[in-house]
Automatic annotation (TrEMBL):
Listed name of the protein: Carboxymuconolactone decarboxylase family protein
Domain of life according to the entry: Bacteria
InterPro entries membership: AhpD-like (IPR029032), CMD-like (IPR003779)
Entry-linked Pfam families: CMD (PF02627)
Biological classification of the source: Bacteria, Pseudomonadati, Bacteroidota, Flavobacteriia, Flavobacteriales
Domain Carboxymuconolactone decarboxylase-like stretches: 40-120
Length: 196
């Protein structure tokens, strides 16, 4: 049971219009946004931040950004965000072999060294205490420029917010996200948990 009930998608028309972004990303407006709109300034600011963070200005692809989000959400244990991130990675063109083997990104041949460096950065930055160190920095700079590193950390930070929001709220998970979670993450024990 959610801590706070999501409102109707029609509750705040400005949020509704901005939230059309999620129809492309996920195929639906997330219940997290429908809850945030109890304070429309929060929902609007969140959507605009999400759009800015997920914009592609370098070589960090939309699919890789969503896999970075999945690693971050997996590190914090947010099952809601794990399912959303893997669904968005699929919708943004992640290779099937990567989706099927995301848990083994460090060793699976579907991932190259640049992607591994980005995903290891996500894992290290999402841990408490933070584990970003000189070795993470050296690996990042081997493959990515500073603007691309900023894009990656933007994703990690955005999902830090979402992981705390959705786990604390117990946000009800949408059917499409459950479907993707079961398909790609279920073999490793993913379940919706408190996000009923």
């Amino acid at each position: 049971m959610p801590l706070v009930t999501p409102l109707s998608a029609d509750h705040d028309l400005e949020t509704k219009n901005l939230a059309e972004f999620f129809n492309e990303t996920l195929g639906f407006c997330p219940n997290s946004v429908l809850t945030m709109q109890r304070r429309p300034a929060i929902s609007k600011a969140f959507i605009n931040l999400n759009k800015a963070v997920m914009a592609n200005e370098g070589r960090v692809t939309s699919a890789l950004k969503r896999m970075i989000a999945w690693v971050s959400s997996n590190a914090t244990g947010c099952r809601y965000c794990q399912a959303h991130a893997i669904r968005a990675a699929e919708r943004y063109g992640a290779e099937q072999e990567q989706l099927d083997n995301i848990w083994e990104y460090r060793t699976h041949r579907a991932f190259n060294e640049a992607e591994r460096a980005a995903l290891d950065f996500s894992l290290a930055a999402s841990q408490v205490p933070n584990a970003v160190d000189e070795s993470i920095k050296k690996r990042l700079y081997k493959f990515w420029d500073e603007g691309e590193i900023v894009e990656m950390l933007g994703v990690i930070a955005l999902f830090g917010y979402l992981n705390r929001w959705n786990d604390s709220m117990g946000t009800s998970i949408e059917d499409g996200a459950v479907e993707s979670g079961n398909q790609y993450l279920g073999k490793h024990g993913w379940e919706k948990g408190k996000h009923i």
